[in-house]
């Protein structure tokens, strides 16, 4: 509810009616001039004003509706020559009707222009082309001296991004409008009523009669500019202005503004056409933006693709950062990147010290518990970062990596200070002196310091996605490391087992079976012999005078003799015979499927063979004494060995270098 008596522009007349649109309760002072009726007349009815049929139609179409779907056109005057159009909407308990003379600008031309523009719009490949089409077409439709598009940044400063103008006017493209030019109240008003038209800011305005009638005229196209708006227009040297809000789902994206230094009538149909065009462009802009963002997101995601591929060797967090940092710095317009994982800091480019980064993420961890990104473009002013030593940094974007819920990891992008040189719009400068500007404001150029480039929504989104992918890559590396560790452990275990097996079954000096293993083999043969009657023989032999060899040539050469003997015997045996060291200089041959004759043959062959043994440095002949025991039913390992041992000692006693058969076994 306006506190002041509402003032109205005079390009149309305004009526306030009751909720049923039956009784006119207030009118603008120019109603008489427009439709030839006395404004002071409280007796006038809607029927008289519109004619009975039109009044009924207006009432019918408004029933249950907030506003008339489309303007109604009617003839008026004694000769019915005056053609007027009527718009109506509800304001609280009242109905407001606005009547404007119908100016025929050619409906077809307007529709044609919009159609044509629509085709051009769909052809526009980028924002610049799109907005250039818009301002040119709007200027052609309206005839304003200057048409601009101003885009708002996150701080609500405006930036002139497109313009169509009279050739003699200097350009304003690239200049700024202070956020105060479009204060929050005005922004909210644009959200509700996207079109604002002021035909002449200096005109004398109409009043409502009675002027104390309580009514909110915010939605009226006729409402006069507020005094501060008038001052603003005056400071710009502007008398007429048409502004259309460019609303996006995220809020007010920008403003299409048309200016004229002289009063500039714009018929309602043209204003509508401009509004439609602006809506079409805004939607198209959203589409272009969405495509651009999708491409950007894909590029960011693809940047880590090889590292997340299963065919790629997993890289450590440090390698991942070093390999991709250049690409990411370009994509995120950052001059440094840090990766903080469980207290370890990896850095590339210009970043704060590891200590400052650690302090920062610890504070973040406490203050910022949700999983989204955190950013600032003013490190020095932000409470969370202001006391941290972060020289050379103005902006930081930190993304938590969903690695370990107990201790989050962070990916941080750092941006330097970006001194912004701002040329404020409509300000006179030596180079830029718009002719529609009269009064010179004090400051026209400004440098914004202490802040970095803003972190765009899509950049924050991309950083989160990158964080997720990076987490995957790091996890796959950690799993790889764990697997490698397990594999090494497994190999070490297998090697240890092999060593144990070797120790358990083999003699460490000669590498032939040890006593334990040969006993196992004898036991196996005993079982087979018992079950299938497959006889076998045991040859136990001992090196003759081995002590002399040791004493004469040393223990080491004695060892060499034992090893050489083992190799020679091993190489001369059948694949089905077993051979092992019984202990000291005693050896056992287990001859499977052998009777006494075969065992004797083998023993003689071995005895003779061993006399040929050659060992470097050994001057004497190596001979062995061999005892033979052939399996007999009821034998155990012990009895068999004992018989062979007894035979071997007989061979020793009988003079050595000979073969003896155990007692009771006849050759
Ligand atoms: N170099 C070396 N000597 C060993 C090894 N095991 C046992 N000996 C030695 O072999 C010798 C065996 O000596 P004796 O038992 O007296 O028998 P011998 O000298 O061979 O005489 P006869 O068997 O009666 O012909 C001892 O001196 C042992 O120390 C070994 O692994 N390496």
From TrEMBL:
Give the InterPro entries listed for this entry.
Diguanylate_Cyclase, GAF, GAF-like_dom_sf, GGDEF_dom, Nucleotide_cyclase, PAS-like_dom_sf, PAS_2, Phyto_chromo_attachment
Q: Tell me the CDD domains matching this sequence.
A: GGDEF
Keyword Transit peptide listed? The answer is no
Q: What EC number(s) is this enzyme filed under?
A: 2.7.7.65
Q: Which domain of life is it from?
A: Bacteria
Q: Which PANTHER family match?
A: DIGUANYLATE CYCLASE DGCM-RELATED (PTHR45138:SF9), REGULATORY COMPONENTS OF SENSORY TRANSDUCTION SYSTEM (PTHR45138)
Output this protein's name.
diguanylate cyclase
The species is: Halomonas colorata
């Amino acid at each position: 509810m306006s506190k002041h008596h509402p003032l109205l522009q005079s390009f149309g007349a305004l009526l306030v009616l009751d909720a049923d649109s039956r009784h006119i309760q207030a009118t603008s002072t120019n109603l008489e001039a427009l439709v030839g009726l006395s404004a002071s007349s409280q007796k006038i009815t809607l029927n008289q004003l519109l004619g009975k049929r039109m009044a009924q139609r207006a009432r019918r179409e408004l029933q249950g509706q907030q506003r008339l779907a489309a303007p109604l056109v009617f003839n008026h005057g004694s000769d019915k020559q005056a053609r007027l159009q009527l718009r109506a909407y509800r304001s609280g308990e009242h109905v407001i009707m606005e009547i404007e003379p119908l100016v025929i600008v050619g409906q077809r031309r307007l529709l044609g222009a919009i159609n044509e523009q629509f085709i051009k719009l769909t052809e526009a490949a980028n924002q610049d082309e799109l907005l250039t089409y818009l301002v040119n077409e709007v200027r052609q439709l309206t005839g304003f001296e200057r048409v601009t598009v101003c885009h708002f940044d996150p701080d609500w400063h405006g930036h002139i991004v497109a313009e169509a103008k009279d050739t003699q006017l200097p350009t304003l493209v690239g200049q700024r409008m202070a956020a105060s030019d479009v204060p929050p109240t005005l922004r909210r008003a644009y959200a509700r009523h996207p079109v604002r038209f002021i035909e002449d800011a200096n005109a004398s305005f109409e009043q409502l009669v009675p002027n104390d009638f309580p009514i909110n005229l915010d939605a009226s196209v006729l409402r006069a500019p507020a005094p501060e708006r008038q001052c603003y227009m005056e400071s710009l040297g502007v008398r007429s202005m048409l502004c259309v809000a460019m609303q996006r789902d995220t809020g007010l994206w920008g403003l299409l503004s048309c200016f004229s230094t002289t009063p500039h009538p714009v018929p309602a149909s043209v204003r509508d056409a401009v509004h439609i065009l602006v809506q079409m462009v805004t939607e198209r802009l959203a589409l272009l933006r969405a495509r651009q963002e999708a491409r950007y997101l894909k590029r960011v995601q693809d940047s880590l693709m090889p590292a997340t591929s299963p065919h790629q060797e997993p890289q450590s967090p440090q390698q991942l950062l070093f390999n991709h940092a250049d690409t990411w710095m370009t994509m995120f317009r950052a001059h440094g990147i840090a990766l903080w994982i469980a207290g370890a800091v990896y850095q590339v480019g210009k970043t704060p010290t590891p200590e400052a980064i650690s302090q920062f993420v610890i504070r973040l961890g406490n203050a910022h518990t949700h999983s989204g990104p955190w950013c600032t473009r003013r490190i020095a002013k932000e409470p969370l970062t202001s006391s941290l030593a972060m020289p050379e940094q103005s902006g930081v974007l930190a993304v938590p990596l969903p690695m370990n819920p107990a201790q989050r990891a962070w990916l941080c992008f750092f941006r330097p200070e970006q001194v912004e040189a701002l040329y404020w719009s409509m300000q006179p400068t030596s180079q830029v002196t718009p002719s529609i500007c009269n009064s010179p404001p004090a400051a026209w150029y400004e440098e914004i310091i202490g802040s970095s480039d803003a972190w765009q929504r899509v950049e924050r989104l991309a950083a989160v996605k990158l964080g997720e992918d990076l987490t995957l890559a790091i996890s796959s590396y950690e799993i790889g490391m764990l697997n490698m560790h397990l594999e090494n452990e497994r190999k070490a275990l297998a090697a240890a087992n092999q060593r144990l097996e070797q120790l358990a079954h083999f003699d460490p000096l000669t590498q032939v079976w040890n006593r334990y293993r040969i006993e196992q083999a004898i036991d196996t043969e005993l079982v087979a012999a018992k079950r299938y009657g497959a006889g076998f023989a045991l040859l136990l032999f001992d090196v003759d005078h081995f002590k002399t060899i040791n004493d004469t040539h040393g223990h080491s050469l004695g060892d060499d003799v034992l090893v050489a003997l083992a190799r020679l015997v091993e190489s001369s045996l059948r694949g089905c015979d077993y051979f092992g060291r019984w202990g000291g200089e005693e050896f056992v041959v287990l001859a499977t499927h052998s009777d006494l004759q075969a065992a004797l043959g083998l023993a003689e062959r071995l005895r003779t063979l061993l006399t040929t043994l050659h060992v470097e440095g050994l001057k004497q002949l190596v001979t062995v004494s061999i005892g033979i025991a052939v399996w007999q039913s009821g034998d155990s390992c012990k009895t068999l060995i004992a018989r062979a041992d007894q035979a071997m000692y007989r061979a020793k006693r009988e003079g050595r270098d000979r073969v003896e058969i155990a007692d009771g076994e006849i050759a």
